[in-house]
Amino acid sequence: MPASTRRQTMLSGIQPTAIPHLGNYLGAIRNWATLQKDFNYFLFIADWHALTIPQPAEELRENVFKLVAYLLASGIDPQYCTIFIQSHIPEHLELSWILNCMTYMGELNRMTQFKDKSKKAEENLNAGLFSYPVLQAADILIYRAHFVPVGEDQRQHIELTRNLAERFNRRYKKKVLVVPEPYIKSDGGRVMDLQDPMAKMSKSGAFSNGIIFLNDSDDMILRKVKSAVTDSQQSIALANISPGIANLAEIYAILSNEPVQQVLESFDGKMYGQFKLQVAERIIDTIRPIRETAQRYLVDRKFLHEVLLEGSKKARKVARETLGDVFEATGLLMEKQLS
Ligand code: TYM
């Protein structure tokens, strides 16, 4: 048996809607980089999902390359991890249709991300936004992933994926699809917006000052952290930690590999200004090398093309195999059965 099939499969995806931010990094990307060697690992750029919000064509194209450069600069290694573009593997959409035919409208109506996004949508809501989680389920199930490392905001989508896999296997009385587990770390799973610590940091956030992007300059990071919303106190008081301070402390704790309680205790009584400077320093030390390495990858387009072509070749092989089993179970005829 080849090494890649002996190990369990892990898979995740990220949308190419902007440069990744600190929430993406702490909630997802850094975990992907740590886990890649221990699993049969698939990571893809979710460009079909990005289309659920209108994207200028040239920007979308460029964002795909930028995203891949930032992933590689964050430690994702194509030697261990199969990186590819979602839209290069049509099998995702084929499985997605089959799953659409067994997903209930009520299930999709209950998705909190759909409810949030539909509140924000200025014009007519598109059907893609509604069936978004079904495509996400297909992304996962087509690779028979055992684990899906994501941030907290994706938990409900993974739950739906599990239900669909179980429903499919039950309906067709065969264990065709693997029921995946979410992999969500207890720290960093929900990094909050620096300007609105009650809302998660999000590429579509209302204030760009509240989002730290992986391409922000050192000065920009310092400015954003300094202006982070806290509360009416001047200094850290352990008995009274506001959401803004808790968020900064969690970021600091992850980046310095310390428990958050220990961080808060060590800053107890210190002025907010002093604490913010230390948080900014930790973030700058993490982001600077990523930003600089990504710039180098970005000028080597040929290398990025090779990584993505190699990735889709490997991914396609697995996806075709699963889809063959799905056709067989559901009674759909494969073209090759006619010759
Ligand atoms: P996306 O592109 O919004 O985010 C990529 C990853 O970053 C995590 N994340 C966060 N983690 C902590 N704090 C935050 N503030 C924060 N914001 C984002 C997300 O949880 C995610 O893990 N639907 C997915 C893309 C996708 C996918 C998939 C993921 C499509 N198909 C299949 C896994 C499996 C999304 O929009 O992620």
Overview of the molecule:
This protein has 339 residues and is mainly alpha-helical. The chain has 2 domains: 3-189 and 301-338, 3-Layer(aba) Sandwich (Rossmann fold), CATH 3.40.50.620; 208-296, Tyrosyl-Transfer RNA Synthetase, CATH 1.10.240. Helices cover 54% and strands 7% of the residues. It has 14 helices and 5 strands. Strand 4 (147-149), helix 9 (155-171) and strand 5 form a beta-alpha-beta unit.
Topology:
Blueprint: H1 3-6, E1 9-14, H2 22-35, E2 40-45, H3 47-50, H4 57-73, E3 81-85, H5 91-100, H6 105-109, H7 112-120, H8 127-141, E4 147-149, H9 155-171, E5 181-183, H10 218-226, H11 243-256, H12 260-267, H13 272-299, H14 301-330
Parallel strand pairs: 1-2, 2-3, 4-5
The structure holds tryptophanyl-5'AMP.
Residues 12-15, 23-24, 27-28, 46, 49, 136, 139-140, 148, 150-151, 153-154, 189-191, 200-202 line the site of tryptophanyl-5'AMP.
Q: Keywords, please?
A:
single chain, 339 residues, mainly alpha, Rossmann fold, Tyrosyl-Transfer RNA Synthetase, 2 domains, 3-stranded parallel sheet, two-stranded parallel sheet, disordered N terminus, binds tryptophanyl-5'AMP
